[in-house]
């Protein structure tokens, strides 16, 4: 009797709550249901691919944020440490240059105000960045302003 029920029963597969394929009592699939199954399967595969790409992009973004966060944390840590020692690390002239950098003055203005050559300002800026262990003028200005 169980075998008779199995043959007579309609086999139904459900994917995502949709009727996707059905077999009649003689075992043949309905063509409309087969097409619907193929369309849903295709959409599901595309959704999976879209999700995969989103996860990859999110992972790359997370890595970039991690690297930047570590750098910022290092800079902030060094700002606190170096900021208190900036006067000990820099010469009086370098402190003057740093003060003008913190005001936002370009090299040409610093040279004019301190009555020195542009190349001398460039040298001072390079030494300031090196001594403070920073990568750019903005980071140097932050150290100066937080002292």
What topology does this entry show?
Blueprint: H1 2-8, E1 12-15, E2 18-22, H2 31-89, H3 92-102, H4 107-114, H5 118-132, H6 137-145
Antiparallel strand pairs: 1-2
Helix pairs in contact: 2-6, 3-5, 3-6, 4-5
What fraction strand?
A: 5-15%
Distance between the termini: 90 Å
Would you state the CATH class of the largest domain?
A: Alpha Beta
Considering the protein shown, what is the CATH homologous superfamily of the largest domain?
Response regulator
Care to describe what's here?
The chain is mainly α and 147 residues long. The protein folds into 2 domains: 1-57, no CATH class; 68-147, Rossmann fold (3-Layer(aba) Sandwich), CATH 3.40.50. 74% of the residues lie in helices and 6% in strands. The protein has 6 helices and 2 strands. It has helices at 2-8, 31-89, 92-102, 107-114, 118-132, 137-145, and strands spanning 12-15, 18-22. The chain has a two-stranded antiparallel sheet. Strand 1 (12-15) and strand 2 (18-22) form a beta hairpin. The longest helix is centred in the middle third of the chain and has 59 residues, at 31-89. It is rod-shaped and about 90 Å long. The model is unreliable at 1-20 (pLDDT under 50).
Output the keywords.
147 residues, disordered N terminus, two-stranded antiparallel ribbon, 2 domains, 74% helix, Rossmann fold, mainly alpha, 2 strands, 6 helices, single chain, rod-shaped
């Amino acid at each position: 009797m169980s075998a008779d029920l199995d043959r007579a029963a309609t086999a139904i597969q459900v994917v995502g709550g949709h009727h996707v394929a059905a077999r009649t009592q003689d075992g043949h699939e309905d063509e409309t249901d087969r097409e619907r199954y193929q369309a849903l399967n295709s959409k599901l595969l595309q959704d999976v691919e879209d999700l995969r790409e989103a996860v990859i992009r999110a992972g790359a973004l997370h890595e970039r944020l991690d690297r930047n966060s570590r750098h910022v944390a290092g800079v902030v840590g060094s700002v606190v440490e170096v900021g208190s020692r900036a006067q000990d690390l820099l010469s009086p002239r370098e402190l003057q240059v740093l003060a003008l950098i913190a005001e936002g003055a370009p090299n040409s203005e610093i040279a004019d105000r301190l009555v020195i050559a542009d190349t001398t300002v460039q040298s001072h800026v390079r030494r300031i960045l090196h001594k403070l262990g920073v990568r750019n003028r903005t980071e140097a200005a932050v150290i100066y302003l937080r002292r």
